[in-house]
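Marked as duplicate of an earlier ticket. Keeping the data here for the record.
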Amino acid sequence: MRILIIGASGTIGRAIVSALTGRHDLVLASKDEAPEQVDISDPASIRALYARVGRVDAVVSAAGQAAFKPLADLTDADFSLSLNNKLMGQVNLVRFGIASVADGGSFTLTAGLMAREPARNAAAVSLVNAGLEGFGRSAALELPRGQRINVVSPPSLSETLRARGQDPGAGLPAAAVARAYVASVEGKQTGTVLDPRA
């Protein structure tokens, strides 16, 4: 399969690339550090990416930013960032990518565990994660030509926790999280929210 991986330079993205290398033809994209450049907060950038890349069998998104701070401190700009980047950025990867994805191909998006397991300072994050999960379930009912869509909702990464000086055992290694993306791409399910801990 020819797979477009967006966010390929991030912690999860690198783990997905590692898991799929040698098994598929990978097209790597990110905002800064990949052969293909894309800013998912910019619809024109997404359309230009698809125009350059052409036909693919799968699109995997491990990209998206959302503001993590106390509710009282979240500004309009914080909510706009979260909605326009992580939520609508990934929604637009699907909307604009339908014509580029082959019959029976798939989309895999990234939400996060805070969609269903809330935490302090995560109101904006939980909002967009829950929106992505709902979008995936509904979009699965309407995608044409046998296309599939799934959403991976990972917990905190061990690597991120370690970098913050926190207990890495409270999270999951990126390599373990990547297995959920592989299952989405290579499996047959659609409209599914995948929890990498399962």
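See parent ticket for discussion. The beta strands are 2-6, 25-30, 36-37, 56-61, 101-110, 148-152, 192-194.
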